[in-house]
Amino acid sequence: MQRTIFTEDHEAFRDSVRQFIAKEITPNLPDWEADGVIPRDFYKKTAEIGINGLQVPEQYGGGGIDSFLFNTVVYEEIGYAAASLGGFQVHLNTVLPYFLEYADEEQRDRWFPGFADGNLVSAIAMTEPGIGSDLAGVTTTAVRDGDDYILNGNKTFITGGINADLVIVVARTSKDPENRRKGLSLLVVEGNMPGFLRGRNLHKIGMKSSDTAELTFDNVRVPARNLLGEEGKAFGMLAHNLPQERLSIAITGLATATAAVNLAIDYAKERLVFGKALADFQNTKFVLAECATELQAGQALVDQALIALDGGTLTPADAAKVKLFCTEMQARVIDKCLQVHGGYGYMSEYPIARLYADARVTRIFGGTSEVMKSVISKSMGL
Ligand SMILES: Cc1cc2nc3c(=O)[nH]c(=O)nc-3n(C[C@H](O)[C@H](O)[C@H](O)COP(=O)(O)OP(=O)(O)OC[C@H]3O[C@@H](n4cnc5c(N)ncnc54)[C@H](O)[C@@H]3O)c2cc1C
C-alpha cells in the first residue's frame, strides 16, 4: 500500500542515504562485527551528510528539524540493507532526544555542536546487574557534595558504552519509601571523569557491531551543571522519552523483516529443488505471502505512530503496542525467511543469518515484550 507520510524531500534524502549505506556501511559491516564496535570516524562521516544533526537546532550546526521522519528514513534504510547499528542508533534516536528535551542553555552550548559534527558519541545507562525491567529499583546513587554529585554504582548492557564520550546515568539522588519512582535523576558523565571505568565489551549472539559494555562509577565527581532536567524527576522524563525509543526499535524491526523477505524472494527464485525453482512451490509462495501481509500490518502501525509522535500524541501504551507487534512480527518473519534458505540460512556469511541473530534482542531491550504487555494492560484499566 502507498505510504503517505513522506514528501519528495524525504525521498530525495532517502536516495542519498541509500548510496551512503552502500558505500560506507555494507562493505565495512563484517569488519565492524569482528571488532565488536563501529569506528569513531563513522560518526563524522554521517555528520558530514547531515544525519547526526538532523534534529539539533540550527545555531549549533544542525538541521533544526522537529519531525522524526528524516531519522526514520535513515533507520529504515539501514534495516533494508540488513544491518543493525545499535550504538549509532541509540546515540541519535534514544539519547539525543533527552538532550534536545532537557538540556539547559549552557549544556546546549557545550554539547550540541559535538552532536551535530560527529565529535560526540553518547549512551544511556539505566540497567544495572540486578535491575532491568524494574527501573524504579535503580540502586546507583548520586549524593550532593557542594557543587558536585558523588556517583557510585554499576551499570550493564550499555549500548555504546565503549565509544561514548557522554553517558546519561540514571541515579538515585534521594529516597522516598512511599514511592520508589521519586528521587531518580539523570547525570551526564563525561568519558574522562576520574572513577568512571568501562568494563568489557560484552560478547553477544547478534548486533555484533554494536559495543555493549559494563560501566562502573567509583566515587565519580559529577558537577551539578551536568544534571539533565530537574533533580528527582528522572522517572517521568524516562516515561516521556521511552515511546520514541520504542517506536525506533519497531521501525528497525519492521525494516529488517522487510530485508529478510526481499532476501528470501531472491533466494527462492535462484535455488533449485527437485528440479525447479523453490519459488515455484506453493508453500514458498504462501509463506512469503503471509510475511508480506505481516509487514503491511506493521507498516500501518508504524506510520500511524509516526504521525502521532510528530503530533506529540504518541502515548506510552500505543508505543508499547507498536513495539510489541513489530518486534514479535520481526521474529516470526525472519524465522520463516531463514527457513526458506534451508541450511544456507544458518551460515554466517548469509545476511539472513545476521538478521536472525540481530532480531532476537528487539523483544528484550527498550523494555521486554512482557513489559510492553504490562504497559498496555495498565492503559486498559487492568
Ligand atoms: C544488547 C542489549 C543492549 C542493551 N542496551 C541498553 C542500554 O543502552 N541502556 C540500558 O540502560 N539498558 C540496555 N539494555 C538492557 C535492557 O533494556 C534490559 O536487558 C531489559 O530492560 C530487561 O532487563 P533484564 O535484562 O534485567 O531482565 P529482567 O528484568 O530480569 O527480566 C527477566 C525476564 O522477566 C520478565 N519480567 C520482568 N518483569 C516482569 C513482569 N512484571 N511481568 C512479567 N514478566 C516480567 C522479563 O520480560 C524477562 O523475560 C540492553 C540489553 C541488551 C541485551
From TrEMBL:
<keyword id="KW-0274">FAD</keyword>
<dbReference type="Pfam" id="PF02771">
    <property type="entry name" value="Acyl-CoA_dh_N"/>
</dbReference>
<dbReference type="InterPro" id="IPR036250">
    <property type="entry name" value="AcylCo_DH-like_C"/>
</dbReference>
<dbReference type="InterPro" id="IPR006089">
    <property type="entry name" value="Acyl-CoA_DH_CS"/>
</dbReference>
<dbReference type="InterPro" id="IPR046373">
    <property type="entry name" value="Acyl-CoA_Oxase/DH_mid-dom_sf"/>
</dbReference>
<dbReference type="GO" id="GO:0050660">
    <property type="term" value="F:flavin adenine dinucleotide binding"/>
</dbReference>
<dbReference type="GO" id="GO:0033539">
    <property type="term" value="P:fatty acid beta-oxidation using acyl-CoA dehydrogenase"/>
</dbReference>
<dbReference type="Pfam" id="PF02770">
    <property type="entry name" value="Acyl-CoA_dh_M"/>
</dbReference>
<dbReference type="InterPro" id="IPR050741">
    <property type="entry name" value="Acyl-CoA_dehydrogenase"/>
</dbReference>
<protein>
    <recommendedName>
        <fullName>Acyl-[acyl-carrier-protein] dehydrogenase MbtN</fullName>
    </recommendedName>
</protein>
<feature type="domain" description="Acyl-CoA dehydrogenase/oxidase C-terminal">
    <location>
        <begin position="238"/>
        <end position="380"/>
    </location>
</feature>
<dbReference type="GO" id="GO:0005737">
    <property type="term" value="C:cytoplasm"/>
</dbReference>
<comment type="function">
    <text>Catalyzes the dehydrogenation at the alpha-beta position of ACP-bound acyl chains. This results in the introduction of a double bond in the lipidic chain, which is further transferred to the epsilon-amino group of lysine residue in the mycobactin core by MbtK.</text>
</comment>
<dbReference type="Pfam" id="PF00441">
    <property type="entry name" value="Acyl-CoA_dh_1"/>
</dbReference>
<feature type="domain" description="Acyl-CoA dehydrogenase/oxidase N-terminal">
    <location>
        <begin position="7"/>
        <end position="118"/>
    </location>
</feature>
<comment type="pathway">
    <text>Siderophore biosynthesis; mycobactin biosynthesis.</text>
</comment>
<dbReference type="InterPro" id="IPR009075">
    <property type="entry name" value="AcylCo_DH/oxidase_C"/>
</dbReference>
<comment type="similarity">
    <text>Belongs to the acyl-CoA dehydrogenase family.</text>
</comment>
<keyword id="KW-0560">Oxidoreductase</keyword>
<dbReference type="GO" id="GO:0003995">
    <property type="term" value="F:acyl-CoA dehydrogenase activity"/>
</dbReference>
<dbReference type="InterPro" id="IPR013786">
    <property type="entry name" value="AcylCoA_DH/ox_N"/>
</dbReference>
<dbReference type="InterPro" id="IPR037069">
    <property type="entry name" value="AcylCoA_DH/ox_N_sf"/>
</dbReference>
<dbReference type="InterPro" id="IPR009100">
    <property type="entry name" value="AcylCoA_DH/oxidase_NM_dom_sf"/>
</dbReference>
<dbReference type="InterPro" id="IPR006091">
    <property type="entry name" value="Acyl-CoA_Oxase/DH_mid-dom"/>
</dbReference>
<feature type="domain" description="Acyl-CoA oxidase/dehydrogenase middle">
    <location>
        <begin position="123"/>
        <end position="220"/>
    </location>
</feature>
<keyword id="KW-0285">Flavoprotein</keyword>
